[in-house]
UniProtKB/TrEMBL annotation:
Protein name in UniProt: DUF6487 domain-containing protein
Organism: Candidatus Flavonifractor intestinipullorum
UniProt xrefs under InterPro entries: DUF6487 (IPR045504)
DUF6487 domain sequence ranges: 5-65
């Protein structure tokens, strides 16, 4: 699958995200805990998700489950 950067339109480089769980997305500016809140989205479910990076724009695109 080819993914284009949403900012510059260049092709992004494919890879995977690695790290310790939980990796959360949150709408909050500052979060005091890594416990998942009602509005948070868990990006890891025991697997390392596929991700694309644009090294020019410093953006990452991740498809989470």
């Amino acid at each position: 699958m080819s993914v284009k950067c949403p900012l510059c339109g260049r092709e992004m480089e494919r890879g995977r995200l690695y790290g310790k769980e939980p990796l959360l997305w949150s709408p909050k500016e500052k979060k005091r805990t890594l416990l998942r809140g009602r509005e948070d989205v868990s990006l890891f479910n025991g697997a390392f998700p596929e991700a694309w990076i644009c090294k020019d724009c410093h953006k990452v695109v991740v498809h989470y489950k």
